[in-house]
Amino acid sequence: GAGVSQSPRYKVAKRGQDVALRCDPISGHVSLFWYQQALGQGPEFLTYFQNEAQLDKSGLPSDRFFAERPEGSVSTLKIQRTQQEDSAVYLCASTIKTDTQYFGPGTRLTVL
Amino acid sequence: GESVGLHLPTLSVQEGDNSIINCAYSNSASDYFIWYKQESGKGPQFIIDIRSNMDKRQGQRVTVLLNKTVKHLSLQIAATQPGDSAVYFCAATSASNYQLIWGAGTKLIIKP
User: Fold this and answer.
1) How far is A83 from chain B (nearest CA, A)?
2) Is the Cβ of A60 closer than 8 Å to some Cβ of chain B?
3) Is the Cβ of A66 closer than 8 Å to some Cβ of chain B?
4) Are B47 and B62 in contact (CB under 8 A)?
């Protein structure tokens, strides 16, 4: 595609609900990153895939966060039993290898 | 630890004037630097990058300067326009580490 797309753009969840956020990277991009961004802050690294392999998940804040990229293209970030502190914008970025990262529009998650 | 910091959280510039946004980094191993522009409700958009073997790089109306001696880089925007209003982030990484280290962001406000 022309760029990285993410869905949904906005998600409101009640505390305790599970959510799934989708990322469609640029076609042919090997690497995919997930970030969490709080208001007024830079993105915070969550996890990194190279093709279908999750090479780094050190940024995931708790075991309630899980990401997958089973076929090396689309990726899903899942948050189980959402908490209010999970409210943030979740950004996905892709790159050919580890060069310039191109970002999607993000998903704004609000947990009530 | 590693950090990339911005000197000013908000910068107000008269339309038509030049804007200069500064950034300092702490890791001397950083060798690749990127400036991103983030408009409200959007993901970070790549503006320009520079590698450590260069001191200056120019794009369309933008110039990035890198001073490795003092670990400082700047983004210069010529003839600032209303569409330049956004938060600007610098990010740094190295060839051995795919992770981007982000600054907190500088909000650029254009005065008519």
Assistant:
1) 22
2) no
3) no
4) yes
Distance CA A36, CA A26 (A): 20
* Distance, CA of B23 to CA of B25 (rounded, Å): 7
| Strand-pair partners of A39 | none
Lowest mean pLDDT among A13-17, A32-36, B34-38, B104-108: B104-108
Distance CA(A13)–CA(A35), nearest Å, equals: 19
Would residue B66 be called left, alpha or beta, if left means φ above 0 and alpha means ψ between -120 and 50 degrees?
beta
Phi/psi of residue B10, nearest 5 degrees: -135, 140
Region B31-43: mean pLDDT is 93
Q: How far is CA B34 from the centre of its chain?
A: 7
- Chain B: closest CA distance from residue A75 (Å): 17
Three-class DSSP labels, B64-88: EEEECCCCEEEEEECCCCHHHCEEE
Distance CA A27, CA A72 (A): 10
Residue B85: closest CA among B36, B16, B37 = B37
Contacts (Cβ under 8 Å, ≥6 apart) of B83: none
Q: What is the mean pLDDT of residues B43-51?
A: 94
